[in-house]
Each structure stands twice: as C-alpha cells, then as structure tokens.
Amino acid sequence: MLKKTFKKLVGLIIVVLLIGCSSSQQKLPEETPEKVVERFFKLLGEGGPSSLTEARKMVSDKYYHPTEENFKKWVDQYPSSTEIKNLQSKIIKDKRDEKIAQVTLEYSVPSDFGGTYTAKSSMNLILDHKSNSWKIDFTAETLPEETYKKEGGG
Amino acid sequence: MNKKYLLLIFVLAFAAFVVSPDLASAIKTGGADRDWHEVQDELNDAPLDDYMIMYNAGGVDGAAAVIGLPSMRTYRHIKVGNDLHEPVFGGSNAGNNNGTPDGKWLYVTDKGVNTLGVINLQTGVMERVIAFPFPFGIHHCNMAPNGKYMFCTGELSGKVLKLELATGRSQVIDVPPAPSAPDYGDVDRHGDYFMAGNYYHSTTMVFSQNPFKFIKEIPVGKNPHDHHFTPDDRWLFVMDKLSATVSIINRKELKVQKVVPTGAGPLHSVIDRKGKYDYQSNFVSDSLTKIDVQKMKVVDEFPIHYRVGHIALAIDDKFVFALNKFSTGLFSPTGVVYPVNHEMVDADETSNSYGKTLKIIPVDGEPHNAKVLFSSIIYRWETGEGEKLFSKNLPNTGAAWEQTAGHDALNPTHHYSYKYVPRDTEKPGVRVAADGVKEVHIRGFSYGYAPRFVRVNKGDKVRIIFTNIDKAAGLTKNPDVTMGFLIHGPYGAKTHIVSPRGISAMTEFVADIAGEYEFYCQHFCGPLHLEMRGTFFVDDAKAGKQASLGSGDYDRASRHEGLLEGGGDYQVEGGNRNSGADLSGPEHNTKGI
Questions:
Q1: Structural domain boundaries of chain B?
Q2: C-alpha distances in angstroms, B11 versus B4, B15, B26, B503?
Q3: Which ipTM score applies to this complex?
Q4: Residue B589 DSSP SS3
Q5: Min CA distance, B333 vs chain A (Å)?
C-alpha cells in the first residue's frame, strides 16, 4: 500500500518538474527585442494612421495601454527624423520574476543649435505570453525610478 | 397602544423638524433624495439668450475662454500669453467675487512669463501687457475698491506688490523669512487691508493698502489657499487646504474668530453679493460645501463630478460653477492636454433644481479662475462704428500707454517648442554634452522634481530633457497624469513642456539672462501641484556673480524681448523700469469710487 502511494508521489513530482521545466524554457519570440524596437521607431517615423495603429499594437497592455487617440497625439511629437542605431539587448527579470528585455540604443534628433543631438536610451520590453512576442513598455512601468523621488522629492 | 406610540413618534418628528433648522434646511433642499445630476433640455445653438458671460483664465492654454451663460456654450478664446491664472475685471471690487465690472478691461495674470495681460472687453482683444518687476513670480491679483490699483502676490519669490494700473508702476514688499510663498489674497472693500495666504508659513499676511506696508501674519490652518472677504468686510474666509477647515478671520480685530470644519481639501471659495453664503470647493471630497456666514457652519453640500479646483459664481448669485481639474469618463480623448470641465450647479434656493448639476462642458487648458459679468455691458459690434471701441479712441486719460497707437491687438508668442525623444536614461543632474551644450536631465513626479536645483552659466546653450516618471498619481486616481515643466519669466515661453507619464521631452535655448528663476508644474497633477517647484539659476560667471533674487539681469528680463509678435519691448509696459515706486500717500488712495 505504502509502495503504491510512494510510486504515485514520485510520479506526481516528475510530472510537476516536467511542466515546470517546459514552462521556464518556453521558446523566446522569433522577433528579437532589437528588431521590435527598430520596427517600432520605423513605424513612428512613417506616421500616418495605419503605421501608428500598427505601432500601438506593439505596446504592452500589461500595466497600461494608451488609447489610440492619445497614443497618436503623443507619438506625433517625436521628430519624424529620429534615428535609432547600435541596439543591444539583454534579458533580465523584474520584481515579479517576469522576463524583461532591456534594449539599449542610441538615438539622434535634430538640435535647435544645428546638426543633430545624439544620446543613449534604453527601453524595456515585456514578454507577452499569449502571443509569445516582445511588447514595448511605452510608459516605462518596469523601470525602477523610485530613488529619484527620494533625492528630489518635493 | 400602538396608535399612541405612533402618534408620539409623529409629534416628536414634527417637533424636531420645527426646532432643527438643519433638518428643515435639508428637507427644503431636497435632502438625501436629491439627484445630483439633472440634464436640462438642450437649447438651440442660435439664437442664444445668454444674459451673462464668463471669462475663464485657461492656464497652460495661454488663452482666456469666453463662455455664454446659462447656455454654457464657449464663444471664443482670446490669446493672452503663456500660463494664465487669475482674471480680474476693471472697476470696483464691490459685490460678490466678480466685483463690479466697468465693462472696459479684463486683467489676467500670466504666471509663466510674469506679466499681466489687459483685454479690452469691448473689442475682445488684448491691448496691453504690463510686466511685473523681476524677481517677482506673479500668481494672483485683486482689484482695489476704486479700480485704480491692484494688489498682487509674488508666489515664486516671496514678495507682494501694489500696482498702479494707469502707469504700470509698482511698489514691492518682501515677505521674509524664506521660504515664503504669498499666494491667494483678497482686498477689502473699505480700502484698508490686503490679506493673502502664505502656504509655506501657514499664515494669512496682513498689509495696509495705503500706505502700502506689512502689518502682521495671522496663523491659520495648514497650507492656506484661497482668501475672500465678505462684501461687508466683516469676515475673511480662509481655505485651510490641508486641515479641511475654513479659518474665519475677524477683520476688525485681525484674529481668527472661528475655525469651521468643511469638506476634504478645501481650495477655493466664493461669497455671494449679500454675504449670506460662502461656497467652498473641496478637491478631495469632490464636493462644494456651503457655509452660512452668520451661523458660521456648513449648511449644505453639493456633490460634483470629479476633482474640483477653483469655483466661480454667477454675477446674480444664481449659479455656482465647479471648475474641475479632471474629466475622467466624460469626454472623448484629446491627447496630451486633456479636456478639463466646468460644472454648473443651481444655487438658487427657490428653484426646483436647487443644488443639482445642470450642465458640464469641456474647457480648454486648465480652468483656473473664472469671472462673470452681465452681457448687456458689452456693446453690440454690428453698429458700423466698431473701430471706436479700441482704447486708442476712448477718452484719453493721459497715461503713456494710451498714446501708443498702431497695435490695437497684441499677439503673444505661446511656444510649445519641445519634442519627444526616446526615454532618457541618464541620471538626473547637469552635465556638459559632447557638443558643449549644458544638458539638464530632470525627472518630474507627484509632487516634485529631481534635481530641484539647476545651475548653469550665462551664455550657456542649455538642453532640458524632462521625463515624467509617475507610475500612478495617488489621490488623483488618474492613470494619465501629465506633468509640466516651465521655467518662469524670460524662459517661460521656451520651456513650456508638458509630458505624459513615462515620456521624455526635450527643449533647447540659450540662457542669456542671468538670475534666479523658479520652475514649476504648469499642468495640473494633483492636490500638491502648486508646491511642485524647483529653481533654475543662471550665474554670470564672467562678472563673478552667482545668481540670487538679489543678483541677475532682472531689468532685461522684465523687458520681455520677443514676447509679442512683430514688436519691440516698447509694447510691454511696467517691469523694472517702473518698479521701486512709492505708491503710498494721499494721491495713491485706494478707497471706493
């Protein structure tokens, strides 16, 4: 009787382990985080209703999803000549142990002082399990910036 | 037996009704059954029978909205400047909060650039710009009883001033110790006192009007906001924002007579013409409360839509208007600067719809204060003699500004010259970029900035990269709190940034005017929005001078080069050219007309 129960227990543990391993080793999306960011800014640069609708679909709705109208008005203020280059990414985990792709990049925009202004930026992408794709964290919900509030708090 | 008990209960209830004025009052006003929102039958768009007109200072919009009442239709917008706060009618301050308009002028304070825009009510265009001196940092102004002077608060520098309207001359008084923030005030009708709150001191400051001098500070509740005298000048009502009380000051004795509990987060108030009721706007409890002035207690409360800021009153006292800061769930989205709203509440106790919301309309920018006049005071334009209504054709009083013909309408510049860039990841602070530009990386959140102090040198090319890092907005419960960043004064029009949550914005300019200039959030973000401030110092390194309120190119700043389209600084009056005046003495009397 005990042997039978023990066997069942071992079987159950194996099943649990198998499920756990298979989920933690879920295949990462085919489109890399760099490609996603590149495509996102390309769509913003193109402008127009269809491109911006497409760009909005690339924004994660895990924490917050801007309305279509708001999103279009906001991104309208990005200069169409914004250039993105030198993209690199690494996978990290956020506070909730969720996978985040951190993409660093360089961008260039026209400067009022002439020429272009070039700076570094980074953008987090959230793994969307349903579609198995990387989604843009547009409002930077996953960036830990609470320390700045303590330094400067008003 | 049971019948006896029932009779007893009935008699007791009747007695309570007769004895308790509160209960009687509650039943009179509809009590608990009151439906707060009453939809009125829509009027036809034309012809409208609007017997009143409201002028609303539109904050970040830089324009004054003209709204017909009671239709609540927006007629038009008048371009004034940068970040508008307080509208004040020319004429006497007698009457309710609207004063007694003379139908000639509407003065509007511009906190963004430290000026006063003067609108000719008859033409509906801005004809004058009066600069406040630098450093000052205007927020609020009140009209003197005789309509010749205004008393104004320099929230961003800790000063107050008396302004002579005909000449633009001003006399400034410092209000130490720092930090000091004179804010909302009121001028009594007798021409004796100007009293204003100081939110850093938690006091009401008392000044005499003539001679213009500081008298004393009266401790009131925490973080005092709006101040209003009753029309008979007997009492001054002070909204204690963080104490949820109203401090009532006895004007004669200059001391607090009574502290009355009211709604949560009382910000502003209006008092009717007879001085019978004071209505307060309560930001946190989303309501307007009504204090019986004689009884000194709350006698009614009207729920309103959401997050009321200022409150306005019809000139005939029949309606109160909640000027709400958020419109959650009301209108279609409009992007970065979302619509705020005005909510019209029936204040006529004899009306069937007393206490109910009659209309809610979307309003541009941020609704700061609004004032109302009878529309009959504005002439009909279609008489064929419209040109005569410009002030250059009005009887001349000999003031210098009236001689300046050729600019019937002044066009202010109102820049939104920033652009959005990918998220800024540099640590907050100031550094020199590869192209030699001083880069200022700054974060904004509810309710502050990091860093709070920014220092550059005169002549530096400056690049501001501002990022809104709010995740949620606490009490406001609004997921989309847009944050503002504006360096007031000469850099106001160049740094008029608004940024939605998570977004970085960039603007560039040359810091060619030395001095100490406060930056602040010009886009409403919550109950401590007003306190969201920092300081931008432009040091004159070549002259070895560190910027302070005592050291800077303030004369030049007050000339406002480039503020008006197509014009030199001659179009802007006042400023430091006319500050330092002595406006005390019999010839500077402020008493009634």
A1: 52-403, 419-561
A2: 10, 6, 19, 66
A3: 0.78
A4: coil
A5: 6
Q: Superfamily assignment of B419-561 in CATH?
A: Cupredoxins -  blue copper proteins (2.60.40.420)
**pTM exceeds cut of 0.90:** no
pLDDT digits (tens, 9 = 90+) for B140-177: 999 999 999 999 999 999 999 999 999 899 999 999 99
Topology adopted by domain B52-403: Methylamine Dehydrogenase; Chain H (2.130.10)
Quick check: B517 and B549 in contact, CB under 8 A?
no
| pLDDT bracket for residue A127 (50, 70, 90) | very high
Cα separation of B39 and B101, whole Å?
Answer: 31
Rounded to the nearest angstrom, the gap between the alpha carbon of residue B423 and the centroid of all alpha carbons in its chain is 33
Residues in chain A within 8 Å Cβ distance of B445? 148-149
Residue with tokens 């193109």: A46
Q: Is the peptide bond before B135 cis (omega within 30 degrees of 0)?
A: yes
Asked if the domains at B52-403 and B419-561 fall in one CATH topology, the answer is no
Residues 439-458 of B with CB under 8 A from A: 443, 445, 447-452
What fold, for A30-140?
Nuclear Transport Factor 2; Chain: A, (3.10.450)
Question: For residues B280 and B311, is the Cβ–Cβ distance under 8 A?
Answer: yes
Interface test with A, best of B466, B471, B519 (most A CBs within 10 A): B471
Query: Out of B335, B447, B528, whose CB is closest to A74?
Result: B335
Q: CB-CB: which of B336, B421, B424 is closest to A74?
A: B336
Confidence (pLDDT) at B367? 81
Give me the residue from B422, B479, B500 closest to A105, CB to CB.
B422
Confidence grade of residue B560 (pLDDT, cut at 50, 70, 90)? confident
Q: Which residues of A touch B501 (CB under 8 A)?
A: 64, 139
pLDDT tens digits, B303-346? 998 889 999 999 999 999 999 988 877 887 766 666 789 999 99
